Amino acid sequence: MAGQLESVSAVEIDPDGTFKYILVRVQRAGGAEHRDVVRGTAAVEFHNHIFEKVNPEMEKLGFECKCLGGGKIGHNSKDKKMRVFGLSTGYGKADHAVTVEILKKVYQDYEITWSDDKK
């Protein structure tokens, strides 16, 4: 089962810009093992629109999802920098420290920081 969880991408975010993101806990229905993943895009107006896209995709694979919170990511691919900040009005603030650790696994050569600043 852990192998199946590992097949879920840890990070799916826009390649550049500042955009909303959510931290999502994915687990097999009724199972204890879980994986936290980051999803973010500028193509949505509200954080829940990201979840409304992710949840059905995960359900098709037999997983349950829970949004752990949200915020924003400023992604500068040219300078290899990311900044995680802000919060989601609907879901509350994600644990940005957790988000940064997940991002660092995928963007290993980036400088990634976080703050509780709203902008």
TrEMBL record:
GO cellular component: cytosol
Family: Belongs to the janus family.
Organism this protein belongs to: Platysternon megacephalum (big-headed turtle)
Protein name: 14 kDa phosphohistidine phosphatase
Pfam families per the UniProt record, alphabetical: Ocnus (PF05005)
Binding of substrate, residues: K20
SUPFAM superfamilies on file: PHP14-like
Physiological role: Exhibits phosphohistidine phosphatase activity.
Active site positions: H47
GO MF, one example: protein histidine phosphatase activity
